[in-house]
Amino acid sequence: MAGAIHWETRSAIGLLTLVHPGKLNAMSVAMWRSLREVAEDIDRQRGLRGVIVRGAEGQFCAGGDIAEYPDFRFSVEGLRQFHEEVVWPALSALLRCEVPLIAQIEGACMGAGVEIASCCDLRVAGEGARFGAPIARLGFSMAPREAALVARAVGEMTAREMLLEAAVLDAQVMERRGFLHQVVPDAEVAAQAAARAERMAALAPEAARRTKRLFFELFGPDAGVKRSGVAMENIVSTAYDYADSAEHREGIAAFLAKRRPNF
User: Where are the bilayer-spanning segments (predicted)?
Assistant: First the structure.
């Protein structure tokens, strides 16, 4: 199974569920494409007042589906296409969505999971949740737009710790650092996320949409670029040159072989 994005509505509240059995809901290429389609569909549904974003079976998302990586990661064009034409459009669709999004975070929230959670307006986590982006162990760095997204959400210091040290942080640390709005016992995460969604649903929906449009203009992915005058396109143009590098191949190969990488 390549994984799936399950979507359902309960009155004015929607449930978006990442589903990839046996892989802690790791994001496959098919899931990224589906996520974009679902996010765009959510934005068109005027009756929705809030959406809970969650993972199946008590896990949020363990990152990307590394078993797929050898198919496209070792060429510059394949790597660029994956991040710029598959991953980023999905994340961008979440960011641009004018319906409030609540992340219900349980278990693993790694890499792609942190990116998806960073697109949500509110984040509620269980005490047992763990956060990180240990891709340095796999021999590659985070794509530019995705790194900017994560750094804005978790803070630059935390992003550096996650990416340079491969640090995995617990929910209490992430709450203290301002990434999480609430940490509750694991058994209460779903109920708390639902309660927040219900509170949102009782408020003015068009006001929420206007607020989200305003926040996107103020804090969205291009806001800092516009202010600084730095063209993201210039960064992206060389960001994937490592695709065929030895350490990139070694990191993926070691993971798939279940051995320690030799960098």
Answer: none
